[in-house]
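Shipment paperwork, digital attachment
Item: protein structure file
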Amino acid sequence: MTHDVRDLLGAEGPFAREVPGFAPRASQQEMAEAVAEAIAERHILIAEAGTGTGKTFAYLVPAIVSGKRVIVSTGTKTLQDQLFHRDLPRVRQVTGARIKAALLKGRANYLCLYRLDQTHKDGRLASREQVAQLQALRAWAGRSSSGDRNEIAEVPEDSPLWPRVTSTAENCLGADCPMFNDCFVVKARRAAQEADLVVVNHHLLFADLAIKQEGFGEILPGANAFVLDEAHQIPDLAGQFFSVSFSARQLQELGSDAEAECGSVTGAFAVLREPIANVTSVLRRVRLALDKLPQRGAFAAIEDDRFAMAELRELQEALRTLEAALATQAERSRGLTTMHERCQGLVEKLDQVLDGSARDWVHWYELTSQGFSLNATPLDLAPPLRALRQQSRAAWILTSATLSVAGEFGHFARQLGLDDPVTLSLSSPFDYARQALTYLPRGLPDPSAPDFTDRVVDAALPVLRASCGRAFLLFTSHRALRRAAERLASQPYPLFVQGTAPRHQLLAGFRASGNGVLLGAASFWEGVDVAGEALSCVIIDKLPFAAPDDPVLEARLAAMRDAGGNPFVQWQIPSAVIALKQGAGRLIRDVDDRGVLVLCDPRLTTRPYGKLFLRSLPPSPITRELGDVDDFFCA
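Attachment content:
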């Protein structure tokens, strides 16, 4: 079969004949062959595919013609929709494969008919706008076959109505729901269980795998192969899903949901009012006791504060008292049964995050303006991820444009516990020698200098004049972004600044402007695709080393140091290289794109590790002369 997929994507194959603008690429065929082999042999494949390889077809074609059950997981819901609604139908049509495919998202993406009905009956809406949105939702509910909130444009993504008309695992009534037979979530899950190919996103995949580990059954059907696109995101995401997290918000929601549930059960409120009020009161005292601590840090900082620890012990007692009170009411309604189970779960979580004796876990906290969270994260993610893969007995294909450091996959493989993967590195088919130029400005100070951002803007201004705007400026901190936005406000280019509008609006405005300058931090370094002349320059302020205030990272680096390793070389540099590749990858998105990459961090030329960063980037000419930038844009 491996040769079949190469032929399907070859110059004489059906894709070349039937798909407008399709260009056969040797790298795409090579990747498709490797994916087909991985699926057939059930082994692990790491495939780095440079921009323009056409990796989506390179894994979809072998997945579809394999005859096996395959789960494809993407980094974002946007990519998930594109894959299911655009790429998959095209591949099915060209190959003629008769397979059942399904799209599955987390439950918060589907309208809950019961909660929609409750919200309508309740009638309490904050504005006329919300009344109109509720009417739109009710009309749409009657004609939608999927209930996927992505279908309805009249209700914006950030509308306060959404949490009221979608369900969570905690408040879902399950089979007891009067609208269970029409439930959009149930229909989507059934379709997924019957499908040959299911398109999910990483959040859902890991939530499901983590739940399955705890023995609750599964949403996703057992598969012969998992294909994880945008796989560079997996280490961070896996850390979230294997963590235990207890938050003030979870407790506040439990209290308000329990009070609401008492409305339909006579006498329940008299029993629960005092324990709920007590939890709310102690919760407030805990937050006040934590107020003098840094926003995020190791749990040891709380343990060193006798007053804060005493308040947390009080919270533990108050929560146990509420759990005992709920136990007396649990059998009186389905809703109160759920409340009791939720409270039991929170008691267990709080016990676990307060128990700092587990050696292989990092205990840490985070404060928000009103609340807090207490967390426990595995020190090493490799063992739980290895156990998951062995349990699945499936092929695992991990692909992205950014997985290697100067061609080596060791850092990525170690993080995920991939002991002996097959690896494949496919460079981009784009002609970077002709299409791109990398400019390293001279004379910039050390990134720790107080005037560094001002000097970066000074270096960027002549480049922006040469490129006529049409640029992304990517920053490693929000403070630098805000300072640059102040400095650039008087320039003659339309300015788009992260945080002033939703991301999709900023990108649409940038594309439409023709000469815009977009300033972004972390979320604009990846997953942003602007092909064509609208984006002709990417300027990056610093090498993206992870912030030193991350307690999990600090603990991992300390463990590496204690084991005799060099955490800077083994962890921090490789992670920063992969992040820089993501940022730089925004520039050339198409075979006709041209552009200049400006890297303002002088450590690229003053530190020995600078060469490793430059060697990991696409092979464009490097210059230190501004005149070469002018010449490039004049050519």
